[in-house]
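Lab notebook, bench 4. Still working through the backlog of constructs that have no structural model yet. Next entry is a single chain of 336 residues. Request: give me the structure tokens for it.
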Amino acid sequence: MFPVAIRGIGVYAPGAPIDHAELRALTGLDINADKLTQKLGIHRRHIAHLRGLPETTADFATHAARAALADAGIDASALDLIVVGTDTPEYISPSTSMVVQGRLTGGETWAASFDVAASCASFTIALDTAVRILASREDMRQALVIGVYNMQAFVRPDDVFGMSIFADGAGAFILEKSAPGAPSVYVDGQQLTDGTQWDYIGVYAGGTHQPVTHERLDSGAYGLQLLQPMPADRNVRLWPMAIEHLLSRVGMPLGEVDHFIFTQINRSVIEQVMEVLGQPLEKTTFAMEDYGYTGSACVPMAFHHAVTRGRIKRGDRVLMAASGAGLAVGCNLLVY
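Model written out:
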């Protein structure tokens, strides 16, 4: 166990929510409302550019960070570590965490900052990394960890799949070292990687291997690209496997977990996973109906959703699991 606790939480989603009918009107695309609602569980989402808002990743992250700081009752100048988990950064360089630090503090501080890019598992891995740094550094006491998503910036206007599922948002945690024997702790984390699956879905243009060129833009080979269909049972297989591996390692029975938070891309998949785990649906949270799929941000946003609705309470044992294209899986086990 690590003597690190969640002191504050915050979320941000830009603009008024957009339901299926309005999304169809704003984009002119043939949106399959029945599938989105009944299978995926998505009812509405927030998309900055469709609301005419000049906001992007760093804006979402900064808003969520300020909400978490307010919830924790601390000033940004007290932060010793800032970690942003995202695969939709503000820039390729500098890091989004540096931009957020500058906006929060207005200048230099004795804080470390960096980004974690592990597709939609970025927040869970960023959280695990931040906890371990905080616990190992005597000079560090408080950290800010943000999961943020702006995949809509990479969705082409004619992409029905991307436009209907992906949404904008950010969620943030303020972490603080806890006193010995304190009830709120971080128990442990688990990761899994399979880089042979890099060529399913991603943003492939803009890096060193495929720079953005006029030819690439003209051919439509840019932005979010689905190169081949992803295995339909991937998360149903991976999440229980990763969860059981982590719980076995720390010696905690599955039934002792009070609440599960998952990547919020598909309600039916979460239902199947809970069935595989043999756990009641009352022990998980669905937040995609309000936020759509917010990738790297969906785990902290769903956590916030559960806390503010009384589904997660102080002292609860919470297990979070997320997966991202590429592929990466990250799990966190903590006592809130």
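Notes after review: The chain has a mean pLDDT of 96. Residues 99 and 266 are 32 Å apart (CA to CA). Flag for follow-up if needed.
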